[in-house]
Amino acid sequence: MLEKTTRINYLYDFYQSLLTPKQQSYMSLYYLDDFSLGEIADEYGVSRQAVYDNIKRTEAMLEEYEEKLCLFDKFQKRNKLLNGITEALKTDSPSKQALLEAVAELEKLD
Amino acid sequence: MLEKTTRINYLYDFYQSLLTPKQQSYMSLYYLDDFSLGEIADEYGVSRQAVYDNIKRTEAMLEEYEEKLCLFDKFQKRNKLLNGITEALKTDSPSKQALLEAVAELEKLD
After folding, report:
1. How many CB atoms sit inside 10 A of residue B81's CB?
2. ipTM of the complex
3. Is residue A59 domain-shared with residue A79, that is, in the same domain?
4. A17, A20, A34, B46: which could join B50 in a potential S-S bond, CB 3.0 to 4.6 Å?
5. pLDDT grade, residue A17 (50/70/90)?
6. Candidates B99, B106, B110; nearest CB to A89
7. Which alpha helices (H) appear in A33-92, and where do they start and end?
């Protein structure tokens, strides 16, 4: 059984445009619409094993893209910095210096 | 003659990890080290035309990646927002509201 993880959901979100239409369909049915492997197999008239293999390969591709482009990793780092800035701005007298440093960190992420 | 543009330099920067080692070599010699097509051809013992065709194809691939992932486009937008935040923070009393809006824009870019 494949593990339906949040990580794969995110990776799919970032890299789906690099996948083939068939890979996109299987992934989207499995991860977004929560179909089972058997239901996807029925839908496409292929074996459950074929669907499993395809999704498994696609997941490996997504991890390879992440290794090369680090979009999910950068997204998480960026998010953390942006949350920090938002929190700081909500306080009475946020430190400008700290905010400028957070902005500099954000610039370095690109 | 290929035009050595800043845009291609940026696209190469963002997507080079998705290229083959040979594509990376040609692109890096041509765009970063400013070799001529003839010099690269000599270096690799291939025709000038072969180098030209390879670089031309690679440039098209970079544009396709940009169409799919928009990393350069998002980088530019992010940069503009970050510069705006930096400028605002350098003024005497930056508007918290404007800063929070810029941060929200940054969050939307991911």
Report:
1. 19
2. 0.87
3. no
4. B46
5. very high
6. B99
7. 37-44, 48-69, 71-90
Q: Is residue B54 part of a domain?
A: yes
Tokens of B72: 């350069």
Instruction: Tell me whether residue A16 is in a domain.
Output: yes
Classify the C-alpha dihedral A77-A109-B68-B26 as positive or negative.
Answer: negative
Q: Are residues B79 and B63 in the same domain?
A: no
Q: In 3D, which of B80, B16, B24, B26 has the Cα closest to residue B50?
A: B26
Res B1: pLDDT: 58
**pLDDT tens-place string over residues B9-62:** 999 999 999 999 999 999 999 999 999 999 999 999 999 999 999 999 999 999
The answer to whether the Cβ–Cβ distance between B82 and A17 falls below 8 Å is no
Q: Write out residues 42-81 of B within 8 Å (CB-CB) of A.
A: 65, 68-69, 71, 75, 78-79
A100: containing domain:
72-108
**B55-94 pLDDT tens trace:** 999 999 999 999 999 999 999 999 999 999 999 998 888 8
- DSSP annotation of A45: T
Instruction: Report how far apart, in Å, the C-alpha atoms of B87 and of each of A103, B43, B94, B98, B99 are.
Output: 11, 47, 9, 12, 11
Is A11 in the same domain as A46? yes
